[in-house]
Structure formats: C-alpha cells, structure tokens
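May I ask for whichever protein you like with its backbone structure tokens?
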Amino acid sequence: MEYDPEQVEILMKKVASILGIRLPGFSKQQDNILENQLNSILIRHQGQAESITPEEIEGAYEIATVYAVFPRQFFLGVRLNHNEDFKPI
C-alpha cells in the first residue's frame, strides 16, 4: 500500500519520539518485524498516522523484540522431543 509521504513522516516522528534510543542496535529481523507491525497499524488506521497511539507503537516494539529473541515454540507452548513429534506442554 502506498502512503502519503506526510503521513509516513508523522509516523516516523512518533516512532522516534516514543521509542527513541531503544531503536539503534536492532537486528535485521527485528527491523523487519517492527516495520511489518507499523505497516499493519497504519493500514488499520487507513493511512492516518495522527490517530496511531503510543500504546500501539509500544506494542509493535514489544512484538519486534520478543518474537525475534524467543523461538516460536515458546509462544506456542510446545516443545520438541527428539524421539517424538511436537507435544503440548
């Protein structure tokens, strides 16, 4: 989806203001996750960055940091036993 450059600028300023010094040092994977989350939020807000809340930006940041650090199995509540298939914990 193409966004109005002014709306992108507004979102960038909001992200920088809210997340600030926490952004540098992100891995490429974390950058991609954060970008995808922010894109989803902007779509939900129909391209209007002014209506995006700080809580939504914090949530996108949390997803980018947590999902990139912990394996998917942790969130699914499953473990891999080398002799068996995945089993719920």
Observations:
- Residues 28-44 form the longest helix (17 residues).
